[in-house]
Structures are given as C-alpha cells and as structure tokens.
Design goal:
alpha/beta, Rossmann fold, N-terminal domain of TfIIb, 11-stranded mixed β-sheet, 28% helix, 37% strand, Methyltransf_25
C-alpha cells in the first residue's frame, strides 16, 4: 500500500478532524456491545487506531484497550494523548500492519473505525485484515467497523471540498479532490493542505489516499470467509436507519463464529 499518514500530515490530523464527535461514537460502540451481550467485555483491540481518540476515551471509561497503527507519526500523537488521562489503565499502542500483526492475547471486542478497512484495496488485503480481527477475538466476540458504502458513493460521487481550520499558531487550509474508479471500487482522494503560521510562513502538505468502498453482499462474503457472522449494517453515525444512498458511511457489527 502507498504510505499515508506521514509525520507531517499526522501532525495536523487532529486539527482537521476536531469536529468529529469521538465521544458519541464511543457511546455507540458501548451501546452495540450491550445490545449484543458484551456488557462485561473489557478487552478491546482497536485496529487502525490513528491518534488514539477512540482508544483513549474507552480507556477512560474503564476498558483495557490496545491500539494498532502502521503510522509511527500517528502513534506518537496517541502516546502523548494517553498521558492526559487521569486513569491507571492507559491504552497500549503498538506499531503494526493490521493485515498481519499478531498480539499474544484475545479480546472481547475488535474495532476498526473511521473507514480503516477501506485502506485495504485488494481482496487479499481485506481478507487478511478481517482474519487479523477474527484471530484476536474470543469465541462470540464482536467486530465493529465502519466503511464507505458503495451505493451512496456511486449516487453522490466525491466532490471537491475545502476546509479552513483555525489553530493556535495560525490556520490550516485543506483541499480534497476525489477521483472515482468505478471498476476498482475505490476513490483516490488527493489532499493538499497548507499550514499558515503567524508571520506568514507557509508549509505545504500533500498526500493521496485511495479508499475502497464496499457493497452489502461483498461485506457479508468477506466476513463469512474470515470466520464471522454479520449481525447488522446500519447508517453511521446515527445507527437508527438502514443503509441507503444517503449513507456514505455504514457501520457493521459481526460476531466471531
């Protein structure tokens, strides 16, 4: 896979997504755990944990969380973030590839949030990532993840977006342009960002992220091939409605079998 989330982009990541409601997403994760009988499940593995936002919140709520990410820049920020929690059970962060990492323990719940599965472009990569989730779960353990929903991506199609974020040292301007590949079921998003510091110094940051989108039968097939039973698909983050052409992101709940 092409390297993404380099150190410079990682450094501005939390500013770009400062409006993402991680607390509410963790509320939903807990709701799903309770809904499917994991009220006492305390051990959580977060595959593709990024800067650790979900992991830190869940650790604050008393869960034993281990986060995995391939980007050292993102993990450096996650390790700084965890030191701010006033709890003895800090989350643990490990560098690794979610397609093949092996951790010597089992978990009650595995997460892979913020469309991490979409970074696995090839079928073999998708299956490897799902098998990683499966082999780290206890019997009947839950796998919770979200993904770009194919019918919605094809219906709305990616558009150019500009985001301006004020930060203490100045501002960040980010432009995102998506190039849709219908045959390959992916969209390559070119991110171009400028960090403008007070005093007019300018830093340019560029990355390309190729994101795969998925269809319901495809998700079911991959999950069953990796040893899961698909329990639910729902619009994300609301979780109330079934997926539709207006559900760019969909959350999936699966059980290890």
């Amino acid at each position: 896979m092409t390297k993404v989330f380099g150190d410079i982009y990682a450094d501005i990541y939390d500013f770009i997504y400062e409006d993402k409601n991680y607390n509410e997403e963790c509320n939903l994760i807990e709701k799903i755990m309770h809904e499917y009988g994991k009220k006492t499940g305390k051990k959580i593995l977060d595959l593709g944990c990024g800067t650790g936002s979900h992991a830190v919140i869940l650790a604050e709520r008393g869960y034993d969380v281990t986060g995995v990410d391939i980007s050292q820049g993102m993990l450096d920020l996650a390790n700084k973030k965890k030191k701010k929690i006033n709890k003895p059970n800090y989350p643990k962060f490990v560098r690794g590839d979610i397609r093949n990492i092996k951790i010597s323990q089992k978990f009650d719940v595995v997460l892979s949030m913020f469309a991490v599965l979409g970074y696995q472009k090839e079928n073999a990569d998708v299956l490897s990532a799902l098998k990683t989730a499966r082999c780290h779960l206890t019997d009947n353990g839950l796998f919770i993840f979200d993904f770009w929903y194919g019918p919605s991506v094809l219906y709305h199609k990616p558009v150019s977006r500009i985001k301006v974020i004020n930060i203490p040292s100045g501002k960040i301007i980010r432009v995102a342009n998506g190039d849709l590949n219908i045959l390959e079921h992916n969209c390559t998003v070119k991110y171009l960002a400028w960090r403008i510091k007070k005093g007019c110094s300018l830093e340019e940051i560029e990355e390309c992220h190729t994101m795969r989108f998925f269809f319901p039968l495809e998700i079911r097939f991959f999950l069953e091939s990796a040893g899961f039973e698909l329990l639910k698909l729902a619009a994300f983050p609301t979780y109330i409605n079934n997926p539709s052409e207006d559900s760019w992101n969909v959350i999936a709940v699966a059980k290890a079998i």
